[in-house]
Specification:
785 residues; mainly beta; 71 strands
Length: 785
């Protein structure tokens, strides 16, 4: 298609044109005209041009492809008439078919945008889907009434060699066993003899899996050249209802990757492979429920009289506190739950019972108490901070803003932030916002209610407070103060006003602004991802755009609500990664539970653009034996036959299998370790990208960093984590991930590890490689104990 306009640039350069949900394939480019083809994986969205950091205005763009937008009703018994709306169904039915549940429906009418059909008598719960001219549409969940089970997941998109778990659950989310499982074509997808079975994708095609009164729809594709399915592809769908999806905090005492939460009070724990682990009913008030750091959730009961906890493994509720819950509920990483109840801070044990009660500071007898900053937080220094404000009402018009800082033992410090002349009642209406300031304290922007109290920014370090003028942007009634939302990689801040996203330093100086944008995620290269899906660099210049901002879990998976759907998305850990700060995500972390957490990932954060130099390369114990043990663990898992997809991907067309290659590494001790001059976890070979020597013997195929994440849990005050799954440094899973990553490099040179790239000095390539390791070998790594 041809796009005309102005200021596109004489040549494409770094420019992009978005046609729908994916970049178009550019055929020609000049300052006034772009000719581009719609990408095969694109769906309807917007047309936009990005050039030199400037994004054009969005124009709605429709991609004419077979796509279901809506079905009505979403459930029905045999004979029910169902209307399906969408695009490119074909002007007439021709050879087209429509699936309702598990069987073809009986077509009543058919047009290019609407199909009406009735449910067949033999059908069981499954999906609605249309086939036309040999192509299948997307699938939508459809429930055939009368059944009592659901298969989870009920939609799967696999590539040849993949394996995937599936199970049947009842209405309470409990597993149902003893069913007969069938596949419509065992040459495409086979079923193991386990109960429930494991699916193995053997060949390209489409099948229906049935068990009892339910079915699942499975599509198998060839492995793409990139190694991953196109961005936006639904990898699996779980029919659990969800008004919102909230990422779970990874924990040995939890099983969920995300929680599906309804406004009516249902919470479902959804695993990373699409299964419903448990379901709990907590009544009204789910908006106050948040994930804790033990893999479960905490929040008030439906009456607000008690604080409940849902166990991360089972979903069983426990009453932690029964004297009125108080909100907001903020969990501390050590397990303590903080509540703001009336004029007191209450600390509750994760197993139940009150740890402490700390009253807010007393105010003068001639003053009244007001709330000030909008919400308490747990900052990166581990303290709980809640603000309070009071004002004299009889004598001098003095306003006081303070902070109460409380640790997990109940020890508290009252910090005066500021005092200023104020008109009666003014302090109650000023408001403000705070986030953590690294692991030093907090930053808050407040004031702006009058000339006597202009907007200011406070930086609290320990008990010391410094006050500067707040960053502002032009507003309708004067300057608008920017509320801090994120902390950037270099310690500066990114916030927002009514009309701008604003970057500012610790002195309150505005660095840059972007109109009509809000910050969502601070990136590891000093930039930010906006809620629009646009990625900006450290100067506020737009560098890339996503079709939309998915919900990212802590393990790097991307989700979209409706039913709960995990989608392919290569932006996190590919286009960007989290900044290594304590408030890189709006809300403090992926779970948005107002607790500051900082992570440092290997590969993604530590592929530094410098030559590696290894001091004291060695094969000494005990580190050498640890490497050997991990290689043996990987080899044993591959030889079990349970991880054929990982083996097939790593081996590819290499002359020797991955199992043989690992055996040779161990036999000839072709690996070692030493202290690196950077934080890279490990590398393959003996030379840097430019050909300079790393200092390791030529017999070392793989070298592991003694001071990196393979052997260590911490980097300074930050936690080392490995890969998209955030495996903690120094653990077996982290070590296996690191070595599997390096095995990918080794096998790539011989025709294996499809999609793997050289990532020396490239964070983007390192992240992309991590995603491939997770996709193909994540189950193997996750199984190691």
């Amino acid at each position: 298609m041809t796009i005309t306009g102005s200021s596109f640039g004489a040549a494409q350069g770094s420019g992009q044109v978005w046609l729908g949900t994916s970049p178009g394939i550019v055929q020609s480019w000049n300052d006034t005209q772009i000719v581009a083809r719609v990408a095969d994986d694109s769906d309807s969205g917007n047309l936009q041009v990005l050039q030199n950091g400037n994004m054009s205005q969005p124009i709605p763009f429709t991609v004419n492809k077979l796509h279901i937008g809506d079905i009505s009703p979403t459930s029905g018994a045999s004979g029910t008439s169902v209307t399906i709306t969408g695009t490119s169904f074909g002007s007439s039915q021709g050879t087209g078919t429509v699936i309702l549940g598990s069987a073809a429906g009986h077509v009543v009418t058919w047009s290019d945008t609407q199909v009406v059909a009735t449910v067949d008598a033999s059908s069981v719960s499954g999906v609605a889907r249309i086939q036309q001219n040999g192509q299948w549409s997307n699938a939508k969940t459809f429930t055939v009434l009368g059944g009592n089970i659901t298969l989870v997941p009920n939609v799967l998109n696999l590539v040849v060699g993949d394996t995937h778990t599936i199970k049947a659950v009842n209405a309470a989310g409990q597993a149902v066993t003893g069913l007969t499982w069938t596949t419509t074509d065992s040459a495409i997808v086979s079923l193991s003899t386990d109960d429930p079975p494991v699916l193995t994708a053997l060949a390209i095609g489409h099948v229906t899996i049935k068990a009892g009164s339910a079915s699942a729809d499975v599509t198998v594709s060839a492995i793409p050249p990139s190694g991953t399915l196109p961005t936006g592809t639904v990898l699996w769908s779980n029919p659990a209802p969800a008004d919102r999806i909230v990422p779970a905090v990874p924990s040995p005492t939890g099983v969920a990757d995300v929680f599906a939460i309804t406004d009516s009070g249902m919470i479902s724990a959804i695993t990373a492979d699409g299964q419903t682990a448990w379901t709990a009913s907590v009544g009204d008030g789910t908006r106050w429920w948040v994930p804790d750091f033990q893999g479960g959730m905490v929040g008030p009961d439906s009456t607000g009289s008690s604080l409940l906890k849902l166990d991360g493994l089972t979903g069983q509720p426990t009453t932690l506190y029964s004297a009125g819950s108080g909100v907001p509920v903020i969990p501390h990483p050590d397990g303590t739950i903080f509540l703001l109840k009336g004029d007191s801070v209450v600390g509750v044990n994760s197993t139940g019972g009150v740890k402490f009660t700390v009253p807010l500071p007393q105010i003068p007898s001639d003053a009244f108490l007001c709330s000030a900053l909008d919400s308490p937080i747990i900052a990166g220094d581990g303290y709980y901070y809640v603000s309070y404000a009071w004002q004299h009402y009889l004598i001098s018009p003095l306003a006081h803003l303070g902070l109460l800082r409380v640790d997990t033992t109940g020890a508290a410090t009252d910090i005066t932030v500021a005092e200023w002349p104020a008109w009666l009642g003014e302090v109650c209406g000023i408001g403000g916002h705070m986030i953590t300031n690294s692991d030093q304290g907090i930053v808050a922007v407040f004031g702006g209610g009058s000339d006597a109290s202009p907007a200011r920014m406070a930086l609290v370090n320990g008990t010391s407070v410094s006050i500067v003028n707040a960053p502002t942007t032009p507003g309708i009634y004067g300057p608008d103060a920017a509320a801090p939302v994120l902390q950037a990689q270099d310690g500066s801040f990114i916030g927002s006003t009514a009309n701008y996203m604003v970057a500012f330093d610790q002195s309150g100086n505005v660095r840059w602004t972007v109109p009509n944008e809000e910050p969502a995620i601070a990136t590891d290269e000093g930039g930010v991802m906006g809620k629009s899906g646009t990625i900006y660099d450290q100067n506020g210049t737009a560098t890339a755009r996503l079709a939309g901002l998915p919900i990212f879990s802590w393990t790097g998976n991307a989700y979209q609500p409706g039913p709960v759907e995990q989608v392919a998305d290569n932006s996190l850990h590919s286009l960007f990664d989290l900044a290594s700060t304590f408030w890189a995500v709006d809300g403090g972390n992926y779970s948005h539970n107002a607790a500051g957490v900082a992570l440092v990932r290997t590969f993604a954060d530590n592929e530094e653009n410098q030559d590696i130099i290894v001091a004291n390369p060695s094969q000494s114990e005990p580190n050498q034996q640890t490497i050997t043990n991990v290689l043996n663990d990987i080899l044993q898992a591959l030889n079990s036959g349970n991880y054929a997809g990982c083996s097939a991907w790593l081996t590819g067309s290499a002359p020797s299998s991955i199992s043989t290659s690992i055996s040779n590494l161990i036999t000839y001790s072709a690996y070692g370790h030493g202290s690196f001059n950077d934080h890279t976890a490990a590398f393959v070979g003996g030379r840097n990208q430019g050909g300079t020597l790393t200092g390791v013997p030529g017999s070392f195929a793989i070298t592991v960093n003694d001071t990196g994440a393979f052997f260590n849990a911490k980097l300074g005050d930050k936690t080392f984590t490995v890969g998209p799954n955030d495996y903690k440094g120094g653990t077996l899973k982290a070590q296996a991930f690191i070595l599997t990553h390096e095995l990918g490099h080794m096998m790539k040179d011989f025709g294996g590890a499809t999609g793997f790239q050289s990532d020396a000095g490239s964070k983007k390539a390192g992240r992309s490689n991590d995603k491939l390791v997770k996709k193909y070998c994540g189950k193997l790594i996750g199984s190691l104990k």
